[in-house]
Amino acid sequence: MRRFYCVVGDPVAHSRSPAIHARAFARLALDAVYAPCRVTPAELPAAVAGLRALGCAGFNVTVPHKTAVAGLVDRLEGDAARIAAVNCVAPEGSALVGHNTDSPGLLRALRQHGVDTSGKAVVVGAGGSARAAAFALAERASGVTVLNRTLARAEELARDLPGAVACGLGSEPSRRALQEAALVVQCTTVGLSDDAVAFDPAQLNPGAAVVDLVYRLPGGDTELVRRTRKRGLRAVDGIDVLVHQAIASLEIWLGRKGLDDLLPSLREAALS
Fold first, then answer.
1. So which residues are the catalytic ones?
2. Cis peptide before 206 (omega within 30 of 0)
C-alpha cells in the first residue's frame, strides 16, 4: 500500500520538502507520496488527530508549530524531549512519537562545510528552530547568545541553556555579541519572502561563519547569505540544512541509517 507523508506548517506553499522527499522515494524505490499541508495554529490539534486517524506514515512540522506539536504527540524521543520542539513525527503502533531532526540536520550541514562549532555562537530567533540550534551548539560552543526582537522570548530560551545569554536584537549588547561570534545561526523567517536581513553581516569578524535556515529560490540564497559571501565569509544556506534534516527524518521513518549518499541528488531536487 502506498505510504503517505506530509509537512504541516503555515506558511508551507514555499516548502521544498515535497520535492526533496519525492526524489528520495524515487531513489529508494518506495511507493510513497509527500504533500504540503497548510495548517493554522487553531487547526493544529485536529490536523494531528486526522493524520493519526489516516495512518500517516510520518510527517514533518515547520513554523510555527514545532513547540505546539510537542504537546500533541504521545511521546518525545531523544533531542525532542530535551529541546521541547518537534519537527518530525513517526508512528509506533498506535502512538505518535515526536523527534527533532533540526538539531542533527544543522550539525551535519556544519560538518559538511567544515565549520568549527567550538567558538562563540549566536542564535538569532527564539522559536522551535532556534531552540534546536541553541541546544545543539550549547554542548559544543564556548558560549551561546540568543538574540530576539522580543527580549522576553530570548530570555526564556537562554534560561534553559546553562551559561547562555539573551539580548534584544538590535541592542548594543547584541551588536557586541555579533562582533565576537565565530558562528551565527539565523533562525527567524526574515528574508523568506523579500531581501530583508535579520542583522547586518558587516558587523561580523573576518573569521565568522553564518547559517541561514531560510532559503529563497532560485539558488537557495537569501540576501543574508549573499551579503555574507560578498564579505568573504563562509555561509551555509537553508537548502543544505533542509536536505540534511530530510535525510535524518527518512532514517527515522524507514529505520535505516547511512542515507547521506542521497545528499547531492536531494539538493538538486530542492533547487529544481
1. 66
2. no
